[in-house]
């Protein structure tokens, strides 16, 4: 049985907004139903802004160390977990796909997905003091509108401030040497990525995904080469391995059960496949993350 937590957007205070602001120290101190110190999947976007404290945050099995002025971008349907530290302070901005779509134009939404996509850019941004000043100012404006001044104008002010924040994060990444992909194939790649995440246990063939997208396998391979400089097969393998890791860590299923769930005809085939791509056996990986 799959035990991974799926956390959906639920803003009880402002249910129609599609956005929520939470102080990180308040979240970490809360007694809530979901255990956020365990890996969990979120059905919304998050921007995590650290203002004080040092610790780490896990995003899809990678531990990222942070200090003050660190920012994490976490996309919808990604798995992550918090480590509780009483010295950590900051903000979490939570928003839905619909809120993002209402915030930005269609072209800007496609581009913003790059900021939240671990295939295209690192989820961690370390910000220097000067660049963090306007971000802190934006956060003060958003918090003021969300908690104290909330009226018929607040939603628009929050949307615009978040819009500016996203572009400031893009600017910081570019200044730090990140390559921001501006290519006609970005939306096609993201569609391919989402299809693999949904169907990789059903099929591992590029041809099947090409048929779903209405293109040829050669075109799909060209899309992946243009955006992430990898073959379509390599992208499928990376996502499938991540999904297998999620089952290994977040379920009580046996290795044999996981192999059949992941679409392998024989458990030995998954054993070889997993070791080929990770360098360790499924059992070793599970033991490492107990």
UniProtKB/TrEMBL annotation:
SMART domains, per the entry: HTH_ARAC
GO molecular function: DNA-binding transcription factor activity; sequence-specific DNA binding
Pfam families assigned to the protein according to its UniProt record, in alphabetical order: AraC_binding (PF02311), HTH_18 (PF12833)
Gene3D superfamilies found in the cross-reference section: Homeodomain-like
Keywords recorded for this protein, A-Z: DNA-binding, Transcription, Transcription regulation
InterPro entries: AraC-bd, Homeodomain-like_sf, HTH-like, HTH_AraC
Domain HTH araC/xylS-type: 190-288
Protein's recorded name: AraC-type DNA-binding protein
Species annotation: Pseudozobellia thermophila
Classification lineage: Bacteria, Pseudomonadati, Bacteroidota, Flavobacteriia, Flavobacteriales
């Amino acid at each position: 049985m799959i035990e991974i937590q799926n956390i959906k957007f639920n803003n009880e205070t402002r249910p129609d907004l599609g956005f929520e602001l939470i102080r990180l120290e308040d979240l970490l101190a809360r007694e809530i139903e979901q255990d956020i110190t365990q890996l969990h999947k979120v059905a919304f976007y998050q921007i995590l802004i650290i203002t004080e404290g040092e610790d780490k945050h896990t995003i899809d099995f990678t531990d990222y160390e942070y200090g003050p002025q660190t920012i994490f971008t976490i996309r919808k349907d990604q798995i992550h977990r918090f480590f509780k530290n009483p010295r950590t302070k900051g903000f979490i901005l939570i928003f839905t796909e619909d809120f993002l779509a209402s915030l930005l134009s269609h072209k800007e939404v496609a581009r913003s997905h790059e900021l939240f996509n671990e295939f295209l850019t690192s989820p961690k941004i370390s910000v220097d003091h000067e660049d963090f000043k306007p971000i802190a100012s934006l956060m003060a404006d958003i918090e003021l509108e969300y908690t104290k001044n909330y009226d018929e104008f607040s939603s628009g002010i929050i949307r615009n401030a978040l819009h500016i924040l996203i572009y400031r994060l893009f600017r910081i990444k570019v200044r730090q040497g990140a390559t921001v992909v501006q290519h006609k194939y970005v939306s096609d790649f993201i569609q391919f990525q989402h299809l693999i995440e949904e169907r990789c246990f059903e099929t591992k063939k590029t041809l099947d995904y090409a048929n779903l997208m209405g293109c040829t396998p050669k075109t799909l391979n060209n899309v992946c080469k243009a955006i992430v400089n990898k073959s379509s097969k390599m992208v499928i393998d990376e996502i499938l391995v991540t999904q297998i890791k999620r089952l290994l860590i977040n379920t009580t299923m046996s290795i044999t059960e996981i192999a059949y769930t992941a679409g392998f005809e024989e458990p030995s085939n998954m054993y070889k496949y997993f070791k080929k791509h990770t360098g360790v056996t499924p059992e070793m990986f599970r033991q490492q993350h107990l």
